[in-house]
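Q: what does this look like with zinc ion bound?
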Amino acid sequence: MSSYTINANRVNRRIEQLSRIGKISETGVCRLALSPEDREAVDLVRAWMEEAGMTARVDAFGNLIGRLKGRDPDAPALMLGSHIDTQPYAGRFDGIVGVIGALETVQTIAEKGWVPDVPVEVVSFCDEEGCRFNKGLFGVRGMLGKLEDGELERTDKNGVTRRQALIEFGGDPERFAEDTLPPGRVSAFLELHIEQGPVLESLGAPVGLVTGISGPLWWTVDLYGFAGHAGSVPMTMRRDALVGASKVVVGLQELAIGEAGAPTVGTVGSLRVFPDSRNIIPEHVQFTVDLRDIDLERRNRLEKRLRALLETVSREHGLRYEIREDTNSEPRYCAAPIMDAIRKSAREMGPGEVPELMSGPFHDSLAMSSYCDYGMIFVRCREGISHNPKEYASPEDIAEGTELLYRTALRLCGLSGKTEG
Ligand SMILES: [Zn+2]
């Protein structure tokens, strides 16, 4: 490990400490958004923010925000951060590395006694993952005034509404307006994140520069057929919703794989069958569609073909279908000046250029990209495994990513002269 300005031990110790909250199995974490575990983790990070010299608060949307004063206290802030909520069967690093890395960046600046030109904020956004209420990026969209109608009425698997969960967590739907960011309050957003893919590992590189985030299209699809006795209804007379759904699942896979050389990906990750009995023909199947691409035109083309497939399959099997669009995000490119700051900072740290790559998964950065310039740094993760307890990034790679984040942040908050010393 080369010598770092940031405190690599502190970074990795904190990641380990956070992983104990909601721990499952040996290395896994289940810390669903707005759960008691989530709140415990937020309180711990909040204490660390205060220890680092920041003032910290949880806003109406459940976002944890720490702030280090700048020489000009009213100047647009540099914002750093990510999320600490997790999927139900997750690892220790997704999102967490970005929050702890951001915290370390500010703590290092504060410990040196430096005052940045502009305020520096560290944010842990509420409910990035979106698995509990089936819609992600809640906190960041809230902060940007981009929540949609009915979002607070969405329920989790136990029938708890987001409104209830948010209030219990300490958020406050009555105060949404006061915690919405007015234009110009933040000048740039920087996010450190594990890659969640195999590209950096295949290049033998500990960190990478992200050039853009591909846009996800999320659907919930309902296919309706007709139930009947599995022993008596002849095959030719069936309206089997699961057979129809299966053809769509396979069709989506074929559509995405058909784009040779493109980073296009399509997934059906959740499927519910009604009445879910071995001797009843499935009457209703609800499933999700996740389609992503960095090229919006190509994604739109595939969406059309997927709609046509649903139409054909439904006709063939006597089904009726409904599509609910849950998310439709455009691909977003990182800001050139920030990418440049990352490149320069990487050059200070060692020879060779930092590799550049796209992000397939979306991140809080995707929402921030509509508000201000943004940049992202990826940390290599083993075998590209994520959303899995086996997710792993080495302490050395995390330190490398945090140092790169720190040096880039110095450039963006008026402390760039300090990097050589
Ligand atoms: Zn994440």
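The domain at 215-328 is CATH 3.30.70.360 (Alpha-Beta Plaits). The chain has eleven helices and 16 strands.
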